[in-house]
Design a protein that fits this description.
The complex is a heterodimer of chains A (about 800) and B (about 325). Chain A is built from 20 helices and 38 strands. With about 800 residues, chain A is α+β, with helices and mostly antiparallel strands. In chain A, the strands form ten sheets. In chain A, strands 26-29-30-34-33-32-31 form a seven-stranded mixed β-sheet, with helices on both faces. A five-stranded antiparallel β-sheet of chain A has the order 5-4-3-6-9. The longest helix of chain A has 19 residues. The chains are: A alpha+beta (about 800), B alpha+beta (about 325). Bound molecules: zinc ion.
């Protein structure tokens, strides 16, 4: 809602309040001021001028050479080259002289135009930023002398204020509404533009009004004006509209717009001669009335619930939203039927939405217009039309008011006010606050409050409590802390787990990323998902912002591959990143999907991005870095799996379409897959334009909180020394080294406290088809110091078992 | 005597510095520290000094002998460990060796910080679905169909009745429906609105919170939010509460803090007002209470919601919200 200070001051004095103070007071009352703008600030140098003579420019057809009087005592006239079609001798217009700057930043200089000197520029409305009119230069009243400040002559000096109005305050979508609020805090009464209104009883009227839908139209008033002369509005009216960003059209349309801004009551003017049967019928469309052409010359489809204003035969306007093309006031109109009505907010909102036709009128109707305000607005409009369009009122008018109601009266418990706000007011104080904004109050303790009709937002006691809060001032209410029973809330295990995962991964050099939950359809193809893959069954948005954000993601990985590409594009190719986020699993149409938290981690480029090649010789990350990161997670969380252990299993059969077939590991708890890790397949890498190898981990976090954890339980520190023995085994190349170690551990020799693989070797020196696996085993007893002979016994037994199990033998040399 | 002791010490130290091999070390040991070495022979002369000087000089001789022996041991260790007398090949200006560490996304950092402040005040954390029903996102919060307040939420729809939540406030209705007061909860999470420009992303993060009990007042709401902002922005920042409108609270408020960029003097970020809006809040509307089966005359409560992106922007001076979701490492490294 925009208004100007000069407009506001017609109804209320703002003396003693500068614009900043006014903005502050309004903001603190809940009318948040968004903009305070000094209007036409750039026009200080523009002055009036009179064109004395005009002749053709010798070197240009469309230009003229003018002598212009600028009211400067030192020069009687100045030469100006002008291109405007309306320039002529005797015209009083506006000039920007050399040195002045136009609102667009254009600096005027003395210039030569096609060889002729020009001492400035005669300006159009558009060039001065006053309106969009660029048809020619200004044409001012010929009595105006030259050299006067244009701002002064046109009374342009004003301040515009824009309020970001909350939906509950439609009463303030009007300058009078704002004035009422100002009256409240400055202890004044507003000066309404209309003091008395006639009762419209229909006497002598030659038209009829019928409301067929009283639920949707609680009030409809109409008056007929004759002998109307359509012409441009006087400057004061045009200026008010321009200042708040409205385009002047003609006197009748401008008056309806002006009243809408002044009273908050939208009006509509029909060309009376177009109304068949001299009738207005407020009704919904008949079955055969399927389309309607609005005054913006667009044909609109009507649905049966759209409330229409009709004449005896056909619709002539979409009620409360927009008029019709055929009944519009034009330059030839002489008889006007003026409508001031009130419509059901929900109905108007529905219509404006369905037709996608938000307008200043519908904005007000859908938030609620005061039905009692109709009479005043109508009377004010009629008076202005008589004054500015030479119109005549020949008869009284019609006022159908089926929805008339008593003013609402609400009880207000003073104790309730004090308890809810944490303040301590007396009944009298509460009553006084409400009276400043025109509420009528009586009683004590439980006050009886009569709500003025324009405050349609006040319906309940709590609404009055809010009024008291805002009138007292939120910042005057004390600041206390609630006293509430102590409580020890349970922590959500999944949230806790997510936080733990974040710690483990950041500690391993991974940066956390956050991607949008919605992605493009194309990700499924880029990942190479098969036609029937469940991850192609997506939850789709009905109104996405773009193709790339049209469906809810079913995987985190594609987003992260995009992140990698972006970073590589910016020369950051050493990457460790992870994301913890939800994926969305389609369940059924019109049902909430299943949402699952997943972890996705990726790495690419140097093994240690921040370690640099100084110490790590530029080692490249590989699958074992990814595997190590995953193992660290399970170890750090002490997860052991319901099956007793969590296993990383190389499995070429259960590949993913986007994983590299030679590098694929499933993370399993028994038969349950918890996640996978692999390298991105070359095909998917190409789809994402990635040239360097990328390794990834995908983990379903929802499965982890249920897994048992290895209890923290103290074991006595060993008292006896340990003995280490190495084994170098030659085994067939196909045997995974991990299986050898696994087999060793499976022996469950209680004297083996530790075993690991320290070397795997395949190469020229090896016998064909064989490889060497070197293991180191640590023996220790809890009871005594083991001697060499005993350890040799254990060791030989282990080695023999392994050799027979894997068809291997000792490696020699 | 004293002079010759000091001179011997200086000679020994100098000689040690020049030694670069084992043979040299051995020669040094024999010459200075051996049974017939220079130090021993000097010690023997102690007998011939004046009786009153003997304890003092004896102590001095011992100290010097000990010192030379320590230096000899250091040199020996250095030679054996391969280093020269001075570590000429060790350039200590080089960076330390590290495998590096990563960082949380700034949004996660700020969100956890917000949650920690409220958890410290006894609030429990509850999360809900990102994809909500129209009922919990709107109806249960007193925003019926065709309410103009729906204009404040540019909603992504999945179907007529299913949508991407536009705020985390649905958790308020869900929890209140499920449990009885007293209640203290915060609901952090992702929210969605179809809006995208330099100050809006279609997905962002919110923390909504609420408290319900007997006799909870607007003054209590002010107290809790004042405590929160002071903890969050470290210090006694001026705060202002201003009337606003949300369908699920009444009275409703917006909370501004003094602009952290210009300290309230007025700048571009605060649109020259000196204030920055950081929170929406209010007393829970009696209608919302009634819908979940609470008696609004018996219980009252407050609710608040804040945008995590905005708070992170203010705390860290980030000027373009889109940076959060580009995941550029040069951005992520900074926090
Ligand atoms: Zn500022």
């Amino acid at each position: 809602m925009k208004f100007t200070l000069s407009w506001l001051s017609k109804y209320i004095s703002t003396d003693g309040l500068d614009s900043a103070q006014l903005a502050e007071r309004l903001t603190m009352l809940g009318l948040e001021v968004d903009v305070v703008e000094q209007l036409y600030a750039g026009l200080d140098d523009i002055v009036t001028a009179r064109v004395i003579s005009v002749k053709k420019h010798p070197n240009a057809d469309r230009l003229t050479l003018c002598e212009v009087e600028v009211g400067d005592e030192t020069v009687p006239t100045v030469p100006i080259v002008c291109g405007a079609p309306n320039v002529r001798a005797g015209l009083v217009t506006a000039i920007a002289r050399p040195g002045s700057v136009l609102p667009g930043g254009h600096k005027i200089k003395k210039a030569k135009v096609r060889g002729e000197v020009s001492m400035g520029m005669l300006c159009s409305w558009k060039e001065l930023g006053i309106s969009e009119d660029h048809a020619g230069i200004l044409e001012l009243d010929s009595s105006i002398e030259s050299g006067r400040s244009l701002k002064e002559v046109l009374e342009l000096d004003d301040t515009m204020v824009e309020i970001d109005l909350t939906p509950n305050r439609p009463d303030c979508a009007s300058v009078l509404g704002i004035a009422r609020e100002v009256a409240g805090f400055t202890n004044q009464k507003i000066k309404p533009p209309v003091k008395e209104v006639p009762t419209l009883d229909g006497s002598g009227v030659d038209f009829t009004v019928t409301i067929e839908e009283p639920e949707l139209c609680p009030r409809y008033a109409a008056r007929k004006l004759t002998n109307v002369v359509i012409k441009p509005s006087p400057w004061w009216l045009q200026r008010q509209l321009l200042a708040v960003g409205m385009r002047p059209i003609n006197n009748i349309v401008d008056i309806t717009n002006f009243i809408m801004l002044e009273y908050g009551q939208p009006l509509h003017a029909f060309d009376f001669s177009t109304l068949a049967g001299k009738a207005i019928v407020v009704r919904c469309p008949r079955e055969n009335e399927k389309t309607f052409t609005t005054l913006d010359d667009t044909e609109r489809e009507l649905d049966p619930a759209t409330l229409m204003i009709c004449d005896a035969e056909k619709p002539v306007a979409v009620a409360g939203v927009m008029g019709g093309l055929d009944s519009e006031v034009t330059e030839t109109t002489t008889q006007v039927l003026l409508e001031a009505a009130c419509f059901n907010p929900v109905s108007i909102r529905r219509t404006a939405r369905t037709l996608n036709l938000p307008s200043e009128a519908s904005y007000r109707f859908e938030r609620g217009v005061d039905p009692d305000g109709v009479s005043n607005a109508m009377e004010r409009a009629v008076q202005l039309m008589c004054e500015l369009a030479e119109a005549q009122i020949t008869a009284n008018g019609v006022d159908e008011y089926p929805g008339q109601k008593e003013l609402l009266q609400l009880p207000l418990r003073v104790q309730r006010v004090n308890e809810l706000l944490g303040i301590d007011l007396t009944s009298e104080q509460v009553a006084d606050y409400l009276r400043t904004i025109e509420f009528t109050v009586s009683g004590t303790d439980v006050l009886q409050v009569i709500i003025p009709s324009f405050r349609i937002d006040i319906e309940r006691e709590i609404d009055l409590v809010e009024e008291i809060a805002r009138l007292v001032g939120y910042n005057e209410i004390p600041t206390t802390l609630p006293s509430i029973t102590m409580d020890y809330p349970q922590r959500d295990p999944l949230r806790q787990l997510r936080q733990d995962v974040v710690s483990v991964f950041t500690a391993q050099g991974f940066y956390e990323v956050i991607n949008y939950s919605f992605v493009g359809d194309k990700h499924s193809d880029m990942m190479g998902l098969a036609e029937g893959d469940s991850r192609r069954k997506v939850v789709r948005l009905l109104n996405p912002l773009s193709e790339d954000q049209a469906v809810m993601r079913t995987m985190l990985l594609p987003g992260m591959l995009e992140n990698i590409r972006r970073n590589i594009n910016f020369q950051q190719s050493d990457i460790r990143m992870f994301e913890i986020g939800k994926v969305f699993k389609f369940v059924a149409e019109d049902a909430q999907p299943e949402e699952r938290y997943q972890l996705c981690a990726v790495m690419s480029g140097q093994r240690y991005p921040s370690g640099g090649s100084l110490y790590f010789a530029g080692d490249r990350a590989d699958i074992f870095d990814m595997k190590g990161a995953a193992e660290n997670l399970f170890q750090s969380l002490r997860l052991e799996g319901t099956s007793g252990s969590i296993q990383f299993i190389a499995d070429s059969k259960n590949q993913q379409p986007y994983s590299d077939p030679d590098t694929f590991i499933r993370i399993m708890d028994g038969d349950q897959q918890l996640g996978i890790l692999s390298r991105i397949s070359r095909k998917t890498a190409r789809a994402f334009s990635l040239k360097q190898p990328v390794f990834f981990l995908e983990l379903d976090l929802e499965l982890l909180p249920q897994l048992p954890r290895i209890a923290k339980s103290f074991k006595r520190l060993a008292r006896y020394p340990s003995i280490k023995r190495d084994i170098a085994l030659l085994v067939p190349e196909v045997v995974p080294a991990g299986d050898v170690l696994e087999a060793l551990i499976e022996q469950k020799n209680k004297n083996v406290v530790y075993a690991d693989i320290f070397d795997v070797y395949t190469g020229k020196k090896m016998e064909k088809g064989m490889k060497s696996v070197a293991l180191s085993v640590t023996y220790r007893s809890e009871e005594k110091t083991l001697d060499d002979a005993t350890v040799d016994g254990f060791h030989n037994k282990l080695v023999n078992t392994l050799m027979s199990r894997f068809k291997g033998r000792y490696r020699e040399g | 005597m004293e002079n010759s002791l000091q001179q011997l010490k200086a000679e020994a130290e100098e000689a040690l510095c020049r030694i670069s091999d084992k043979a040299g070390l051995e020669a040094f040991r024999v010459k200075y520290l051996g049974r017939k070495g220079l130090l021993s022979s000097t010690m023997k002369q102690l007998g011939s000094v004046a009786k009153e000087d003997r304890p003092r000089l004896g102590q001095l001789a011992n100290t010097i002998k000990k010192g030379v022996e320590d230096l000899f041991a250091d040199s020996k260790e250095k030679l054996e460990s391969g280093g020269g007398a001075v570590a000429a090949d060790m350039d200590l200006s080089l960076a330390g060796r590290t495998i590096g560490f990563g960082k949380c996304h700034p949004i996660t950092q700020v969100m956890e910080e917000i949650c920690a402040v409220f958890e410290g005040m006894g609030f429990a954390v509850a999360e809900g679905p990102d994809i909500e029903t129209d009922y919990y996102n709107f109806e249960a919060l007193n925003i019926p169909k065709h309410h103009p307040a729906r204009d404040m939420h540019d909603t992504f729809y999945v179907s007529d009745s299913i949508l991407l939540r536009t705020h985390t406030s649905p958790m308020q209705a869900r929890i209140m429906e499920d449990r009885d007061p007293p209640l203290r909860y915060i609901a952090p999470g992702k929210v969605y609105r179809c809006d995208s420009d330099i100050t809006h992303t279609p997905m962002f993060h919110q923390v909504e919170g609420f408290l319900v009990d007997r006799k909870v007042s607007f003054a209590d709401l002010k107290g809790v939010l004042t405590a929160f902002t002071q903890r969050m922005f470290e210090g006694d920042l001026p705060l202002r509460f201003r009337p606003s409108f949300f369908p699920f609270t009444e009275p409703s408020a917006e909370v501004d803090i003094a602009c952290v960029i210009c300290s309230g003097k007025g700048c571009r970020v605060c649109k020259r007002t000196g204030w920055l809006e950081i929170l929406g809040a209010g007393l829970i509307d009696p209608e919302v209470m009634t819908m979940v089966g609470y008696d609004p005359d018996e219980f009252s409560g407050f609710a608040f919601g804040l945008g995590v992106e905005r708070i992170a922007m203010l705390k860290y001076g980030i000027d373009d919200i889109r940076l959060y979701y580009e995941n550029d490492l040069r951005f992520l490294e900074q926090f």
